[in-house]
Amino acid sequence: MTTNPPTRSLVTLLTSLMLVQSGDALAAQEDATARSHRRGVQLLRDALTAHGGRDVLEAHPWVSIHSRVNPRMPGQGARVGTAYLPPGYSIRQALDLRTGTTAYHIGGADAQTARSTVWWSRDSVVVFQPGTNQLNDVSPSFARTSILLPAVYAPGLLLDAFDRSSTVRWIGSTELDGVSRSTLTYVDEADLQLSMTFDDDTHLLRAVSRLRTTGVLGDHSITFEFDDYRSVAGISVPHAIRSSVAGIVTSEAHFDSVRFDSVEPRRTAWPDDVERSSKVWGEYPTGTPTIVPLGSNVFAVLDIAFGYNHSFNYNTLFAEVDGEVIVFDAPGNSSVSEAMIELIEETLPGRTIGTVVTTHHHDDHIGGLWPYMKRGAVIVTTEGSRSLLEGIATAPRAAESDPDRENPPVVSIDVVEGEKTFGSGEPVVRIFEVGPLPHVEEMLIAYLPGPQLLFVADVYNPTFEGGPASRSGLVLADELERLNLPITRVLPAHGIPGSGDDFWAAVELARNDAENEPR
Predict the structure, then answer these.
(1) Which of 157, 284, 315, 427 is the most buried (most CB within 10 A)?
(2) For residues 330 and 334, what is the distance between their CA atoms, to the nearest angstrom?
(3) Which residues are paired to 248 by β-bridges?
């Protein structure tokens, strides 16, 4: 069959119209992208001018900042301070904007007196700890979202965005508390997309955010908010910074001083005998676990994963109780838990994992809960952590490939108030709520009367060198004495397993140290 000439003309006309419309749509899209780029770059130019001008900012590339920081631990409400950093701790920060390097001295003035020093360059991030003479490489994303939260230099962010102006896009404007603000995004040198929000009147940078995904919170933002702008050498510098994760405030920093140096800051010199770890902070690689039988159907799993340094291992415990398996903590992430589940299935074939006891709400101890939730395990926790754990199954994860995310399980939460016992025969597992502790407000410990075994996380991390118990360990010791529990073995979530005598020796050392402190 052939098409007659009028029909061919009609087909040609329709095809031409479709191509024109398609071309118009493509042109409109390209024009929208170009407008977004131009408007974003203009917004950035106005901000550079408001902060002192690009030429002035680039003429002062070496910056020294001394700040005081009040950290907050998500999940502990308004409580200021964490287990590792007290309220008002000091950060001395030296930046070289030309080379993209920064030295952060945390808790001291230099690498020798600080609790730790973070050296961040375009090539690597490392942490030096003079107390252990260790040098650890750090995952850049972990450094950006955890270690360096309180120390952000706003003018440096503007210069960084301008250097990558081809990636800048204007997002839109909104009104917040009666103030009109505009937002742009850009892609930084680590290929992370950041958003910047500015006051439309002053053009000062008010917030910078990025998205990340974790096993606990799903897709969420990490945000720095800037306030208390002051002029230093003609440059507008915010002297108050508040950081938040998923809308939860994690730190508040206040600058004591900002100085623009006339000479380049000297790179931190590590000692010649510094020990460089083979592990990377901020990653949770699955270890080569060792299974140790501790009693009738009770098993310790040593080195199931590693964390921030080579000694920061994760141990856990599982036991068959009344035909079902109880697991203690879900450290790291889903990959670690999948490896743990495989070990359980090899050791106790055919058994169902019925319960997971979470010691506390810190994400490195609950980051692997999702695989257990998928299997219908009951999650045991404290009242203060209930809502956090309930949200794990339904947390938004736009890029999540797990098909089970489409139909999340109904999570069963079992809250311990005071004490709870599992098992009618051997083994019996007793769970106790202890706290508040300096480490966390609420903590669960597990005690198995048969092997007289104590499982405890974070508040007691024994090493081969021994040493006194922590402040949280002393509070735990008081609680154990009240409960009158005979302890033969101690399995810590971090560190090496030991005896009850080892634990009480560490407690005695700490108590003696406290008595001998000058008053």
Answers:
(1) 315
(2) 8
(3) 245
Residue 434 DSSP symbol: E
Whether residue 158 contacts residue 51, with contact meaning beta carbons closer than 8 Å, is answered with yes
Count of alpha carbons within 13 angstroms of residue 160, beta-carbon side: 25
* Residue-wise pLDDT tens digits, 399-418: 666 656 666 778 899 999 99
Grouping H, G, I as helix, E, B as strand and the rest as coil, residue 9 is: helix
Of the pLDDT bands very low, low, confident and very high (cuts 50, 70, 90), residue 1 is very low
**What confidence tier does 129 reach under pLDDT thresholds 50, 70, 90?**
confident
Backbone angles phi, psi at 447, to 5 degrees: -135, 130
Distance CA 493, CA 506 (A): 17
Distance of CA 66 to the CA centre of its chain: 24
Mean pLDDT of 213-237: 90
Closest CA to 351 of 381, 376, 321, 378: 321
Distance from chain centroid for Cα 1: 69
C-alpha closest to that of 143 among 168, 166, 174, 117: 117
**What pTM was estimated for this model as a whole?**
0.78
pLDDT in tens, 286-310: 678 999 999 889 999 999 987 755 5
Say which residue the tokens 């922590």 belong to. Answer: 470
d(CA 221, CA 423): 42
Residue 369 banded pLDDT, cuts 50, 70, 90: very high
> Length of the chain, please?
519
Contact at 8 Å (CB) between 277 and 309?
yes
Nearest to 316 by CA among 497, 151, 136, 128: 497
Q: Span 159-179, mean pLDDT?
A: 90
What pLDDT does 85 receive? 67
Per-residue tokens: 482: 């009240």
Between CA 395 and CA 381 the distance in angstroms is 18
- Alpha carbon of 144 to those of 11, 211, 264, 354, 373: distances in Å? 58, 12, 23, 37, 30
Task: Please confirm whether the linkage preceding 427 is cis (ω < 30° from 0).
Answer: yes
Q: How far apart are CA 507 and CA 3, in angstroms?
A: 96
Handedness of CA 148, 153, 156, 161 (dihedral sign): positive
Copy the structure tokens of residue 279.
């592990």
CA 492 to chain centre: 22
CA 175 to chain centre: 30
Greatest distance between any 2 Cα atoms in the chain: 107
CA distances from 439 to 74, 283, 308, 458 (A): 12, 22, 18, 8
Q: Is cis: bond before 492, omega within 30 of 0? A: no
Residue in the structure block whose two tokens are 């021994």:
466
